Structures are given as structure tokens and as C-alpha cells.
Amino acid sequence: MSEALSTVVKEACTAADRDPTRLMDIVNQVQRKLGQVSPTAMDLIASELGCQRVEVESVVSFYAFLSAEPQGKIVIRVCNDVIDRLEGADAVLDAFADALGIRVGETTPDGRITLMTTPCVGMSDQAPAALINSHVLVDLDPSKARHIALQLKASGDPHRLVTKLGDGNNAHELVQSMVHNNIHQTGPVVFAEFAMGSALRKALSMTPQEVIRDVKTSRIRGRGGAGFPTGMKWDFARAAPGDRKVVICNADEGEPGTFKDRVILTERASLMFEGMTIAGYAIGADLGILYLRAEYLYLRALLESILDERRAAGLLGKGIGGKAGFDFDIRIQMGGGAYVCGEETALISSCEGKRGDPKNRPPFPAQKGYLGRPSVVNNVETFCCVARVLEQGAGWFAQLGSKGTSGTKVLSVSGDCKRPGVYELEFGITLAALLKLVGAEDAGAVQVGGPSGQLVGPASFERTICYDDLATGGSIMVFNRSRDILGIARGFVEFFCEESCGYCTPCRVGNELLKERLDTIIAGRGEPSDLAYLEELGAIMKLASRCGLGQTSANPVLTTIKHFRPEYEARLRAPQRGEQRRFDFNAAVAGAERIAGHQSVQHGAHEEHGTAE
């Protein structure tokens, strides 16, 4: 064991108070400093924490940003989601590979640079994008990629790539990012001017029960996508038995095409923290956790400085606002690159220093969440809205929006439109009005709510964006009439295959079967019966999957069959009389034979008598 490795591991464990529930902090720090969490490092971490080595390895093997194998000092992660690929990400990736002389997943011979792909990094409005360590590069093309590769080979310093700073806090000395906010329309809730502490002071003049009553009266629903009534969730947590309760902000914005939380974190973090603190007062919590996705590491220093500012102002810590007994503080928990951690129970598992495996429900987090304590989990935007409800009044908020969904919604718009970016609009706007606003003149399809939402066509453009019609956590992806609908659906299914935690069979196997049958149809070998097969498989996945990922991951297929059925039917062929789909036995068992190291018993028989039809 090298002295450097031992020192890094011990420093990481000491910084986390040798607390096994802070394992994510420890392995993230080791990864950043050493470029891997090696088997030796795992042994040492387990020894330092007094836990089993398998617990450490299970975490390292689960998250995409962690690796047991050595990676370069510089890791290039090219975003390969559907929007980025339509904007040319594949050509960008090829240019990086050619300039570096390596393939995806490889490291340059000198061990300095590793090339990877990654799903959505929250930059769909300025695609193609890539992460180089924690630095974000946007609006890439093959020429830029080759130039970047040459610069990295020469200097070895990703920071030198930042040549022009973005707007707002992207130019802050603690951020120094090239990212643009692209805020095209602000509203009266999230992006309105805000005086730090104004909402919290009003909350503290009320009882916790009165705060929850106002949140209920405002009719605010969770902005993460599910739309569960926020006040009801808080009421459950306050009523749950337990002396220590927890408020968790879900900033794991991993849904492809979603980036509005990234902009809120950049420009309205204090408003979000104020909402978390109000939640802490309302439910009787002493701890708040901001779960920040690994892709947004570049914002952490800014967020920590804002927390320090609020502590200095008496808005966090002991006796907040002079209220005796109200002790509440917030810490930031970094993720490790796992889409499933956007599901609240998987997020809680990650906060506890475990794999991001979803938990069985009941009990629900409001009853038994983080470390078994009653916990409220809400989205970044939800906490901003709550602060505004307390500041401006429940009645003011309730009169905004549509009849069934109050307030505004911050939307992330990307794809085939003239003005991609962020829009804060009142609920109830029609999709047609939104498309006109963003300059989508040739829209043939719109993905509402990210891959787990629904892809709709022109017949649905007069529908409204709200939780009673077209629900969305924020993602709006526009596709013009030239785009291949089945190719888009296939890209989303491929994403779910990659991001499934693998715990339950309906999701782990079901997504692979969806992709397999889609490939058959796209290749022109599909039959009419395949559509019924896909619909039945999707229904089974929705019913039998353990968490929200598997329950919604068939939506790209189900909603495209529903709204774009002719696109499927045009690629199907009618089987000839008496014809059955060919089954190649030898191909089917070839993989298992390689693993076993010998041919199957039936292999020779099929070679002799021919492949079964």
C-alpha cells in the first residue's frame, strides 16, 4: 500500500468523522484525488469505518462517476442523450477519440486522459456538451473537440479551457463556468426578486401548524413530476413519531432534457434554502440535506458560500431568527452519477452511504426515511415556491395557474426550436402557445416530462401543461417533422436500460426486451403482432416494477404507439402464410458457451440437423 493512498483515504474518512453513512463523501473524495477507488482503497476504507468491504465495493460499483479501475487525471465525459446526439454529439465523440488516439472507455497510453460517455448533464439547451472533470463545455462541434483534445494534451489543465464566462452567477468567482442560463421568461414566483429571510421571518411569526395550513391552502403540488400535494406530505411528516426529522432537497436532476433546477441552483439558491428552512420549522426537523447530482459539482462552492452567508445572518444554525429551540442546518450531499437516485427512496439510500437502490414502500419517507427518521423529500423548485407562498400569501399563490394546478412552472425547453432555454410560465398554458413562444415552427412531436413522460403529436398541441393534463417535472423536448420517431423512442429506452438499478426483473429485463423488439421493427423485420407484444410488456412493467423508473420506462414505447402508430405500421411486414420468425439456436447459446468454455449439449445436433424454424 502506497503512503499517498493511505493518506488520502484517512483524510477522507476523518473529514467524514469516520461515519459509515457518509460513505458517498469518502469514496467521492478518494476518486477525485486518486482517479479511482482501488480494491486496496476499499479495504482501507472498510477498516477505517469498521464496516464490511462488500459495502464499500457495492457503492463504488454502482455509481457511474466512481471506478475501481484507474482513470486519467482528466476524464472527458461526452453527453450522449437524445438531444445531444441530434445536435451532433456522435461526431464530437469521434473527434475526441481520433485526436486522443483512444476509444470510448479507454485511457491514453500516458495515463493522463480518459474518454467516456454519459447521459444528460443538464445542458440540453446548449448541446452538444461535455464534462471535463468538473468543467462544463457547451456548444461543441468536431473542430472544437479536436482543439480541446490538443490543449489538454499540451497543458493537462482543464481550467484553461474556460475562455469565456457565462451570464449571472456562472461568472461568479466561485463558479467560473462557460454555461449560459438562457432564461427567456421570468415569472412572479421563482425568478422574481427576493429579500433573504423575508419568507422565513413570516413563517416564524406563525406556528408550525399554521405554516402547513398555508402550504395546503396554496394548493402547491410537488414540482418534481409526481405532483403530490406538498402540504399533505409535510403534515404526514410532522405527525409521524420521532424526535429527529429531516428535510431533503432533491437536486438530482437526471431526467434527459431537464436543466431548470441547474439554473435555479445557480441564480436562486438562497430562495431554495429558505424554503428548506421553512420546511424544517414546519415539520420539526433539525437537519436538511441538499442532494446535488455529480454533474453539478461545479456549483458546490457557490452553494456552500450561500449557506455560510445564511448562517452568518442567523438564518441557519442554533435558535434561527431568535426562535428558541429552532435549530436547523443544511449540508450538501454529492451524488455519484445515477439517474435512479432521482427517485426519492433511492436518493435516501444514497444519502445513507449506500447504493442508490429504491426502498420498498410502505413505509413512506414521511414515516420512515433517512436513517429511519421521518423525512420530507421535495424538489428544488418546490422549496422555492414554498418560500414565496409564505412571503406573499397562500391566496396570492393559489390564484396563479390553472383551476387544478396553482402557481407557475419552470420549464426546460430544448430540441428543434429557435429559443431553447428556461421559461417560468403559469400552469394552464397550451402546448401550442408554448411552441410559438419558443420558436418551434415545424414541431412534429414534443416529449413532455422527459423520457418517462409522453411523446405527443400535433393532435395534442392544444392540451394544457398542468398536473391534470400534460404533467411534467420540467422537461419539454421539441422534435421537428423530419425526426425519426422510432429512433427517438429507441434512444430513450436505451437510456433506461443503462440506468436501471437492476434490482427487479420487470425493469431489468423488460427494458432490454423493449429495445430488442424495437430494433427488430426499426430493421424492417417487425410484424403486426409486435405492437401488441410491446403494449403487453409495457403494461406488465408498469404494474410489476418496484419503483418509478421501471413503472414509467416503457412510456417512450407506449406513448409513441398511441400517438404515432402509423410510424410503426409503416415499418411492419405481414408474415407469409405458414412463415414463423426464425430462431437461431446456436446464436442464442453462444454467449453462455463462451462463459462455460465448452459447447452446449444440443449444439452439435443443431449443426447437424439445421437451425429450428
> How large a portion of the residues is in β-strands, by DSSP E?
5-15%
User: What's the assembly state of these chains?
Assistant: single chain
- Overall average pLDDT: 94
Q: Summarize the main sheet.
A: 6 strands, mixed
Helical residue percent band: 40-55%
Lateral strand order in the biggest sheet: 5-11-10-14-12-13
And the CATH topology of the largest domain? Rossmann fold
Overall form: globular
Euclidean distance between termini CA atoms: 58 Å
The number of E-state strands comes to 14
Structural class: alpha/beta
Q: Which regions contain 5 or more consecutive residues with pLDDT less than 50?
A: 606-613
The level 1 CATH classification of the largest domain is Alpha Beta
What radius of gyration results from the CA coordinates?
Answer: 25 Å
The tally of domains stands at: 5
The DSSP helix count reads 25
Full CATH superfamily name of the largest domain: NADH-ubiquinone oxidoreductase 51kDa subunit
User: In the CATH hierarchy, what is the architecture of the largest domain at level 2?
Assistant: 3-Layer(aba) Sandwich
Descriptive notes:
- The protein is an alpha/beta fold.
- It has five domains: 3-62, no CATH class; 74-163, Glutaredoxin (3-Layer(aba) Sandwich), CATH 3.40.30.10; 184-398, NADH-ubiquinone oxidoreductase 51kDa subunit (Rossmann fold, 3-Layer(aba) Sandwich); 408-483, Roll (Ubiquitin-like (UB roll)), CATH 3.10.20.600; 486-569, de novo design (two linked rop proteins), CATH 1.20.1440.
- Helices cover 43% and strands 12% of the residues.
- The chain has 25 helices and 14 strands.
- The longest helix has 18 residues, at 505-522.
- Mean pLDDT is 94; it is low at 606-613.
